[in-house]
Amino acid sequence: MSAAEGPLVVGVDTSTQSTKALVVDASTGRVVASGQAPHTVSSGAGRESDPRQWWDALGEALRQCGDAAREAAAVSIGGQQHGLVTLDAQGEPVRPAMLWNDVRSAAQARRLVDELGGPKAWAERTGSVPGASFTVTKWAWLMEHEPEAAAATAAVRLPHDYLTERLTGEGTTDRGDASGTGWWASATEDYDEEILSRVGLDPALLPRVVRPGEVAGTVRDGHDLPFAKGTLVACGTGDNAAAALGLGLRPGTPVLSLGTSGTVYAVSTRRPADPTGTVAGFADARGDWLPLACTLNCTLAVDRVAALLGLDREAVEPGTGVTLLPYLDGERTPALPHASGLLHGLRHDTTPGQLLQAAYDGAVHALLGALDLVLDEDADRDTPLLLIGGGARGTAWQQTVRRLSGRPVQVPEAKELVALGAAAQAAGLLTGEDPAAVARRWDTARGPVLESVERDEATMERITGVLSDAAALLERESR
Ligand SMILES: Nc1ncnc2c1ncn2[C@@H]1O[C@H](COP(=O)(O)OP(=O)(O)O)[C@@H](O)[C@H]1O
Ligand SMILES: O=C(CO)[C@@H](O)[C@H](O)COP(=O)(O)O
């Protein structure tokens, strides 16, 4: 491999299932080295991970990068949104982090929405109507169910902030990830003291919100990662905002991400405030906005269905009227936190491959239903949909999105767009450039465009119909 042309930067994605690290040549965007190490997520009633495991996974991913990581001039860490990390006075986790896909705080979410003026007021104030994914509802759950843990908490962090702080020694976050907490007001771009007081959280426990382009800190002594003391550290951001940076996204281009979560989003210059709660009004990492809809059941749920059927994930067959809503973890879009999976239309001649295709259809349906809601009204409907995340590698996912959207679909060749976005943020610290402009210079969105096919309206309508007819069942707790 030829020598790098420019300084090296490290971009990290600490996502739900694993941590990925890339060492990137800041001049060209060439990925010089990469590494990945898995995390474990609890099963059962909640979804939790030990934050210390993220740090260990980061160390392992960087070790896989070899000497290149040691040469980095700047680093940035992006990661899964919303998770509640509670630290004691020594900076050690008080308990495992409650993750974005933990739905135990659904009752607290409903109560908070009612207590503070209803969905419209929340949307206008924070950009979003908080559901169980949002950090504020998790903190309210902790106060109610584990008051000792809440009382022992000296600092509250988001997942990527926890790692950044262990590197720099400073508690920082950014507007992108802060906007997914429910206690950051998008209207004022500041912490909302009334909301914090309502859930009994002292603002002094929260990290400083670093401005876009500002240095979060420098690498300190006394850690086991391969970075030199004094290396610049960018503030990082939530994984979706990081991928938007990594794609150099401009308003009007929609993104569909297929990972543990399914997300659909676009950059907008207008601050979102959807009172239905379907669209979360996140901030992006630059100063614009990132209206986004998210599902809890995407690649993991469909892979689980394939495993139950004993099929390879690509072994789909065209469906004939069978509907499978793969809501194995409860669901966020549509807002059905207690839902479980639901099958309708099974016949003697239904094949396993058709059932698997129905799971893909069910996973993609809600995301495509929200696609128009995240785009500004004047967006060009023929702009290709950018397909990213681990699932974007799969032919069955690509073809399902193509058929149910009726849009051209572009699959970037770059695999780790969250980590690339973080790397672009780190490069921006060195050059003073806008990270999205860095990513465009690196041509990260390059990849084949699959032409549009006729939209399969019948399947979309059938799934919408089953959802509506099964409403009572889907609201019922089954465990
Ligand atoms: N070649 C592939 N085809 C289809 N799905 C894939 C492929 N490779 C990985 N995946 C899916 O990608 C998922 C992981 O995606 P990723 O975006 O890394 O998730 P997360 O960010 O939530 O940790 C896995 O659940 C797996 O199902
Ligand atoms: O909750 C959301 C977005 O609001 C999720 O998108 C999480 O940010 C987790 O992302 P992945 O680990 O699935 O990429």
From TrEMBL:
Sites where the protein binds substrate: Q81, H82
Annotated site residue numbers, Important for activity: D13
Catalytic-site annotation from UniProt: D239
Carbohydrate kinase FGGY N-terminal domain boundaries: 9-246
EC number: 2.7.1.17
Function recorded in the entry: Catalyzes the phosphorylation of D-xylulose to D-xylulose 5-phosphate.
PANTHER family according to UniProt: SUGAR KINASE, XYLULOSE KINASE
Family, similarity comment: Belongs to the FGGY kinase family.
Name of the protein in question: Xylulose kinase
